[in-house]
Amino acid sequence: MPTDRLILRRPDDWHVHLRDGAMLKAVLPFTARQFGRAIVMPNLKPPVVTAADARAYRERILAALPDGFAFTPLMTAYLTDTTDADDIARGAAEGVFAAVKLYPANATTNSAHGVTDLCKVEGVLERMAGIGLPLLIHGEVTDQSVDVFDREAVFIDTVLAPLLERHPTLRVVLEHVTTEEAVTFVRSQAASGRLGATITAHHLLINRSHLFQGGIRPHLYCLPIAKREKHRRALVEAAISGEGPFFLGTDTAPHTVIAKETACGCAGCFTAANALELYALAFEKAGALDKLEAFASLNGPRFYRLPVAEEKVVLERTPGPVPDIILLPEGDGVLPFKSGETLPWRFAGGV
Ligand code: NCD
Ligand code: ZN
């Protein structure tokens, strides 16, 4: 008999784009109703660079939170060539920063301020290693001559491995891994306990062929781009393994429909509307629903050295449709990943 009720400790989302203003107000309730905590990405325009920026952004998030939600945003600093190590260290000591995010310059949405050369931030990384503050990495090389499907694997060989060698105590999360190479590399470092990896729901569910099924599918386009089926399988295998370095990070990245459905569409899948339902679907397809709690609720807090949640949440086997477009007040809207499709599981709140 298949299970029809799943109870797990309240999960956390270790990689979220909440945006700002009207978009923040529209998307935040979806993340806050399912997750207890979330690592909030700093790629606003302009980015969240200083502890003062992060404090102000945290206030805006808390102000946008509807009553009755117990949700903790964990803030990150956007690393730039000129980041001040003292400000980062002070921000961490004062509980403002949970991590620092490295975007190689121009790797993805709003990353023009990213780091142009790692040698410019060696001092900041040294300080972070000293205080145990994690570095979260968008792991793709930006060299446009490298094939877009190879940019993660090349990054691991040419940037990440040397970085870990130069900083033997720096704690790192390789964000939204999409390749078998990434899974193998993360495992090769498992003994150190200092390298984690987030895995999105969409990368567990789609491969690169889905991007072109019957025509071009702009709502499936994200960065890093989905890879071949063998890579998707490697990600599923890692997610359901229960192994400590692998944990949940949706990378939910809302863009308006107009920004997605255009000649040069933005990268990002909006998965927050049904994040847990999507992960449950992927885990069930792999026959591993019993491993969802480790991935969603236990491994992340252990890596971030935070307590695991006491509270529990329920998923029920009640098939339901993914919502249609979520309208924004000024017009336009955001389309959830798999909008219109039916998912077998439904998030039923806390117990
Ligand atoms: C993210 C966004 O839109 O902010 N897009 C994405 O495809 N994941 C940026 C990012 O995390 O790469
Ligand atoms: Zn992201």
Give a written overview of the molecule.
The chain is of the alpha/beta class. The chain has a single domain (5-350), classed as TIM Barrel, CATH 3.20.20.140. Helices cover 33% and strands 17% of the residues. It contains eleven helices and 15 strands. Strands 2-3-4-5-6-7-8-9 form an eight-stranded parallel beta sheet. It has a three-stranded antiparallel beta sheet with strand order 1-10-15, covered by helices on one side. A two-stranded antiparallel sheet has the order 11-14. Strand 2 (13-16), helix 1 and strand 3 form a beta-alpha-beta unit. It is globular and about 50 Å long. The two termini are 23 Å apart. The relative contact order is 0.15. The model has no long low-confidence stretch (mean pLDDT 97). The structure holds N-carbamoyl-L-aspartate and zinc ion. N-carbamoyl-L-aspartate is lined by residues 17, 43, 108-109, 138, 222-223, 251, 253, 267-268.
Brief characterization of the structure:
The chain has helices at 21-34, 51-64, 85-93, 122-131, 151-166, 180-188, 201-205, 229-239, 257-260, 275-285, 292-304, and strands at 5-9, 13-16, 37-40, 72-78, 97-102, 135-137, 172-174, 195-199, 246-248, 312-316, 320-321, 326-327, 333-334, 342-343, 346-350. By secondary structure, it is α/β, with parallel strands linked by helices. The longest helix is centred in the middle third of the chain and has 16 residues, at 151-166.
Total strands: the figure is 15
* Average residue pLDDT: 97
Biggest sheet strand order reads 2-3-4-5-6-7-8-9
Return Rg in Å.
Answer: 19 Å
Distance between the termini: 23 Å
Question: What's the structural domain tally?
Answer: 1
* Uncertain residue ranges: none
CATH architecture: Alpha-Beta Barrel
What's the overall geometry? globular
Q: What letter string, H or E per element, gives the SSE order?
A: EEHEHEHEHEHEHEHHEHHHEEEEEE
Query: Are any ligands bound, and if so which?
Result: N-carbamoyl-L-aspartate, zinc ion
Q: Structural class of the secondary elements?
A: alpha/beta
Task: Report helical residue fraction.
Answer: 25-40%
CATH superfamily: Metal-dependent hydrolases
Figure out the total of helices.
Answer: 11
Strand residue content = 15-25%
